[in-house]
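Chapter summary example.
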Amino acid sequence: MPTVKFYLNPNYLTDNYCPEAIQLAEGFLESGWIVVGNIDYWKRGQHWLIPIAKSNQPVDLVVMDHRFVHHTKPWVIKDHVLNELEKNCPRVLLERQSGQETRPQWNRDGWLDFFHIICATHRTTSHPSHPRIIPWQIGVISEAREMIPEPSSNLNHSVLCNFRVGHDVRGDLVRNIEAWLESNPDSPEFVNRFDVLGEEASERDRALNQLTGGRFNPPYFAQLGVHTGVLAFGGYLAVKPFEYTSMDGEGNVELRFATRLERKIRRMIHGAKPISSRHHVAFQWDSFRWWETLVAPCAPVTLDFEYWGLDLPVLPVEGQHYVGIQELDGRSVANKLSGLGHERLEEIGSAGKAWFEEHYSPRVQAGRLLNELSSRGHSIPD
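The structure predicted for these 382 residues follows.
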């Protein structure tokens, strides 16, 4: 059987939580592959999903998480980490840095030549393109999916707002929606809450909550089975033009003087107008909430993929798999939800779940990666 080897950092540190690797490992196992790693990673019961590889174990594919790459350094990986067999394998990077892979130092260090494919989440159509970079997704791990309720006929006719942390898009839009609803009581019911683990939480749930950086939250998962719609957007906004390639070593954006001047002028001109894709860009948009809501019976309410230029291997259809937001003002969002009605929201929730199973289940994701490698001339064992 073919073997895939993952290179990851220990996941007892929450910064090293890599759901992309967890889902790919599940998909490869379902496809009959042997899955190993440089460390034991992600324990399930008495076993590791990704067990540490045996010495000199044959490998057919190498997958690395960007955190491992960042902390280990390129010259160490090339000269000391990979054995001779692994150096001849296709190499894949799981990247989640909103354009970091197009920074000048990536060319300087040779990363764009070292990896045969870079699976990058948070991609947009305005990112600089590169033949080895493909859009990817955060997705949702099986532990979370198992906690999300199945479809029910007792959904509340309401829209849930339940965010773990605040982002620009979330803060601005939630405030706008609340302000609109206060003056328009006939609009859809809006439930704003934040659920936390209580004292009754099991030891397993507490452990998973810690390992996922607070993202494993059964009380929140339960709410996904109660409401017909759930706000599921994330990300940050910047006035155009936004240069993805101009980041320093800490990941901070450093813009050229001409770009800073142009952005300042645009902010002065457009600052008082509704935020739109004409003058703004949304980045770091991919959200755990989006995928969790997608596999739940409720309708996800998120940024309109086509309008904001958000990119995925397969795009969902607005109005069929999710409710898309264009201009970030409470009135337009409330009016859109009112116009759809509760029955249509339930239909969207059901269709979104089916769309996820067709295009983003673990096995499909593993197959997508193998097809990408095969299409680029890499020999992949059956």
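To summarize the output: The longest strand covers residues 156-161.
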